[in-house]
Amino acid sequence: MHDVIHDLLGLYNYWIVIILMMTGFYTVIARPNLIKKVIGLFIFQTSVFILFISMAKVEGGTAPIIKEGISVYSNPLPHVLILTAIVVSLATTALGLALVVRIQEAYGTTNEDDIHVQDEED
Amino acid sequence: MDLVLDVLSWVCLLGGAIFLLVGAIGVLRFPDFYTRLHAVSVCDTMGAGLVLVGLMLQGGLSLVTVKLLLMFYFMIFTGPTAVHALAGAALQGKLKPVVDDREP
Amino acid sequence: MEHLIDIALLGLLMITGFAIVRVRSLLAVAMLTSIYSLLSASLFVVLDAVDVALTEAAIGAGISTILMLATVALTTDEEKAPRHTPLLPLVVVIATGAALIYGTLDMPHYGDPEAPVHQHVAPTYLHDTPGEIGVPNVVTSVLASYRGYDTLGEVTVIFTAGAGVLALLGYRTRRRNITGPGIRKLVVLRVIAKLFFPLILLFALYVQFHGDYGPGGGFQAGVIFATGFILYALAFGLGNSQRVIPHQLLRIMMAVGVLIYAAVGIESMLLGGKFLEYRVLADDPITGQHLGIMLIELGIGITVAAVILIIYYGFVSRRH
Prior knowledge:
The complex is a heterotrimer of chains A (about 120), B (about 100) and C (about 325). Chain A is mainly α.
């Protein structure tokens, strides 16, 4: 019993991350609206960020800024990877949204089902 | 002296938390957009302000306190302005407030 | 205590995530996404990643939201119900999730100092940074010096995305201001925007040049700088904002940032070191590292700010 609670607390972060990831994944595959799909990808991305940063945490550590009298720091490497990934995620999200805007202008809709119907008519 | 400061800062922190809680209840309980906005703006400024003051008392005379003061300055300007803009936008969008039109 | 905050924030994140899937109004979804980002930024602070939190708060909660709102304004606010029952996607998602959760059972526990992640290169970075690089913020030293090559790649990706948005949305110069009549009536908003505009730029410079010592650096500073101009454009109209910082200038700046970064690398090769080996830039290795980090952070800041403003201009000038 004690082991189960220990596991639950120790893996809680990862499980929530997986639930968030699946929320984003579901939005991408089940929702027809293109903006909603981009937002689903955004949720997925952010959950991956949380996964990396959770792994970087060291019990009792502080932020990795070297200071006198502190010896335990969290792992700086995932922080670096995710910091740049966040900025890149903005760039890719913007690109996706720009595509959505162009699709709206070309088809007059952002609904995937309607776009398929229009494509089949042509 | 330390004890007095600690007690004061805890009073501020807890007071701020209570204000924020009341604001949150207000958002849930009030009937329409404008009254909800009222609950948020008033309680937010007071609550977050008190929390910051409490933290300043904990920080003492240091760089942290200066940064907290700057945050306080930013907050007392941006919070009400944002709410003002929101209410303005709602009025612009022809959102009618809920009024009690029963005879008194 | 930290665990409690961690658990509460993750719970709120989950609720917000579910709300984003269920809510039909895309305007509300965009705002919920902003809350989602802000919550994850708070979580990053609890998990000791202050640099990441600063970036996520500025980008996720700030600029992504503005872009989503701009897209909603250009398209439609209503999401139509899906045609098919979502049974198959649900099965796929649950199966994938279960497989992933089964995978986590072998993972080291949260906060475990013995986890393999903490054994490989991270101790070296933490141990060598004070002697080799001489900056207290290890995130900056890894980002700009130890893994400078990766970061050059990231900056190039951002540059490419900016060029992509430019190609997709194009750009039209506007002489006329396109603020609605509503915003002109809100005098308070305009006064406060005017008051805060210089402060935001000042803060961006602080974050840019203080990144060696505290949380911050080129990525965050670039974003904050762009936010200042976006605030200006929101309050005073796109036309005025473009008179302050014209589109041609942004297109040049976007490339100049990447070029500064690459030039520092080539300069260190010319001085007899390897690509991006900053210690040859000055007589003293530590001064060289400081100089190199400052220059490439400047390059990052310029590119990020220019790309974000180009993306914003692209979306907003598309209207009408």
